[in-house]
Amino acid sequence: MPQTVFFTEAMLSQTYNSENNLPSFTFRYFATGSTDIYQVQLEAGQYLNATYLNLPRQRVTVEPIFVDTVRAVGRWKVEIIYGVQAQSIDGGTGLPVPEISFSTMGGTQHVTQSLSTVNRYAPSGQTAPNFKGAIGVTDKSVEGTDIPVSVFNFQETHYFSTFTEANKATLAYLTAKWNNAVWRTFAIGEVLFLGVEGGRRGSAPWALTFHFAVSQNKTNLAVGDITVSTKMGWDYVWTQYEAGVDNTAHAYVRIPKSCHVERVLEGGDFSGLGIS
Q1: What does the buried/exposed string (b/e) look like for 45-83 if buried means 16 or more CB atoms within 10 Å of the residue's CB?
Q2: Collapsed DSSP state (helix, strand, coil) of residue 270
Q3: Domain edge (last residue) among 56, 83, 110
């Protein structure tokens, strides 16, 4: 797009501020060449510096001085602030440092097996059947129940000076994949990359928030009389039940016949995230 708005730096343009120990610089310009405030705003973002002393451009303010749409004459005051807001700067990159948050709340899971049967009760003189930990047993099925579980979700916001189409494709490919190598101390298969969101404003750095969830790997899981030796965090375990007889209770029961560990998600190389 050809430049239609022209900028002249004002006298005594530069102002320095260090409020809350966060440095910022303000530059002031006069703009001419357009009567359209949106055009002035657009070209200020395009043609004026995106950074100053490694500080990103935070805000561009445009105010009219004189606008005559009949004669197509416009004169504007443009103010640009470089700095960071409530963020610190990484001295190595000149970009804001990453922001990290996490939560262990809000998860539910449907289970058909208990960790253990605390007790069984029956009418006096009778014995309650032993279902080997199966929950909600009926004549034909095992209904199970929903339980609250701790879900470790965490987010990290990182800043990038450049972010290409190839970077976007890599993140899209890694979404819904688990770590195929040890990552951030987590074992293989424990971390799921849920995806990324974010963007940029004008020529400021890209601000991208990466979302993750963690499910711990398990070993030696007891399911009735069956032992599941290994289950990676994001593998899925389901149990097949069969009819049986509890000779002590003189009752037909449904008990675990087999357990199946299914891999329902693929692994991925998290080094491609670009945040290690």
Answers
A1: beebeeebeebbbbebebeeeeeeeeeeebebebbbbbb
A2: helix
A3: 83
pLDDT in tens, 203-238: 778 889 999 999 999 999 989 889 999 999 999 888
Q: Write out pLDDT tens, residues 15-35.
A: 888 765 678 899 999 999 998
φ, ψ (nearest 5 deg) of residue 269: -90, 105
Q: How far apart are CA 214 and CA 103, in angstroms?
A: 11
The one-character DSSP state at 115 is: S
Q: Looking at the structure, do residues 65 and 152 belong to the same domain, yes or no?
A: no
- Is residue 78 domain-resident? yes
Computed over its alpha carbons, how large is the radius of gyration of the chain? 31
> What whole-number distance in Å separates Cα of residue 60 and Cα of residue 44?
8
d(CA 88, CA 97): 6
Among residues 51, 87, 84, 100, the alpha carbon closest in space to that of 275 is found at: 100
Task: Indicate the residue among 83, 115, 146 that finishes a domain.
Answer: 83
Beta carbons of 244 and 257 less than 8 angstroms apart: no
Handedness of CA 86, 88, 89, 95 (dihedral sign): negative
Q: Is 43 helix (H, G, I), strand (E, B) or coil?
A: helix
Q: Give the helix ranges, DSSP H, for the chain.
A: 37-47, 165-174
**The domain containing residue 17 runs over which residues?**
6-83
CA–CA dist 235, 228 (Å, integer): 12
Contact yes or no for 176/194 (Cβ under 8 A): yes
Alpha helices for 12-85 (secondary structure H):
37-47
Q: Could you give the CA distance from residue 34 to residue 45 in angstroms, rounded to a whole number?
A: 15
**Total residues belonging to the chain:** 276
Whether residue 150 is contained in a domain is answered as yes
